[in-house]
Amino acid sequence: MSTPNATRPNISKKIFDVVMFTSDDPIDRRILLEAESLIDAGYSVIIVIPEGNLSCGNPDFVIRMNELRVSTQKINKNFSSKIINTYRILRPVLQKIGFNITLLRSIFWSLLVSPEDLYLGLFEPALKVVRGRVFVAHDLPMLPVALAAAAQQNGRVVFDSHELFAEQDLFISERRVWRRLETRLIKQADRVITVNQSIAAELARRYAIPVPEVIANCERWRPHDAFSQGPTLRELIGVNADRRIILFQGGLLPNRNLANLVRAMAHVQSSRAILVLLGDGPLKISLRRIVERENLNNCVFFLDAVPQDQLLELTRGADVGIIPYRASCLNTYLCTPNKLYEFIMARLPIIAADLPEIRVVIERYGIGRVGDVDSATSIAKLIDSFFSRTSQTGPELAARLEHAADELCWEREAPKLVATIRVVSTRPESQRPGFVRHDVV
Predict the structure, then answer these.
(1) Most exposed among 21, 123, 125, 411, judged by the fewest C-beta atoms under 10 Å?
(2) Verdict on whether the full-model pTM lies above 0.70
(3) Residue 390: is it exposed, middle or buried by C-beta count within 10 angstroms (0-12/13-18/19+)?
(4) What share of the chain is helix, strand, coil (3-state, %, to 5)?
């Protein structure tokens, strides 16, 4: 992939088949895979992201807001835009010192500016110059943006609901804001897609819409012997081959039960078991303090996050992956996180919380163990139970993991996405939802 130019003066002269909007930082793997698959199918695609957002590898189908040549005189300098700029400045600073970002969002969105106005203002430069035929909203915050673009250009909208956004572990006032927004806007999308059957069923029940198409968060398939010979997890943390590595990978974020996971290592019976936390986030400092305070330095290790295209090389070096999420909200209860499919493609068995969609995958393929994760001691028992079962090692497990990797790969999901875009882009005007104009702030 080529490196993008510093500016793209001709962006407004091109009409893209598919325009994707996301506020993710960095860009979620699902979004990049969707764009690549549509490009492979012959569509012209652009992903529009806020200024300063960094994507792994800087693909040339990504455009940042600061790359758009829009006269500053044309951008509204109202109260909402000032709030947006303040939020963007405060968020990374406060996140570094461990401030509750959920509280910050609640203050901004519930008291100062609506999330709809915030994101419409944030993406205003793109709404003025980026043209397309199908607009994809990646998660609920982007739905008003995609609908506004489509209303201006007589385009179509696909809403890719990565999760039950309005049912996250948020303050009640913030949940209400998102529920009202989703209730008002979701039926205006031409098509809704999502990540698993449970969320699809819940969206259909809640909003009386057709059951969304399920496109799982799978990884690209790769042969089990196609991983590089770079540094392994054991080499990076300096442990012997006889240690059994339990791997958590992803953001070290609140509401992921990570403090209990770290404390569990004080109760695990196997002296060979160690925990590796691969990732960054606001909880890293507090988790390190737990390790120091409880004298767990010999069995808990931290590694910084790596680019997505390097992740599975390290994942492959563990003995088991762990997903310790507690069902603190409906969104988490029904989740199928990226790491589930990353572990599978790395041919790694999985220890996980007993959440319905995760249980379905693990039990269907016989690739791990689910159980109680409500406390440090229950997590330790689950880990010990996994290591004590002979069925969790050897050629039989390897065969089951290979079967899971063959079936749960992006190559099986991509055709469903391409078919959805094809149907939406050719949908007759008479069959489309009634759009409501969403003026840019």
Answers:
(1) 411
(2) yes
(3) exposed
(4) 50, 15, 35
HSE of 216, CA atoms in CB hemisphere, 13 A = 22
pLDDT in single tens digits along all 441 residues of the chain = 334 444 454 676 789 999 999 988 788 999 999 999 999 999 999 999 986 555 455 678 898 877 776 544 444 445 555 666 666 666 666 555 555 555 666 666 555 667 888 888 889 889 989 999 999 999 999 999 999 999 999 999 999 999 999 999 888 888 898 999 999 999 999 999 999 999 999 999 999 999 999 999 999 999 988 776 677 899 999 999 899 999 999 999 989 999 999 999 999 998 899 999 999 988 999 999 999 999 999 999 999 999 888 899 999 999 999 999 999 999 999 999 999 999 999 999 999 999 999 999 999 999 999 999 999 999 999 999 999 875 556 889 999 999 999 999 999 999 999 999 999 998 766 555 554 444 443
Q: Are 307 and 249 in contact (CB under 8 A)?
A: no
Question: Beta partners for 20?
Answer: 47, 136
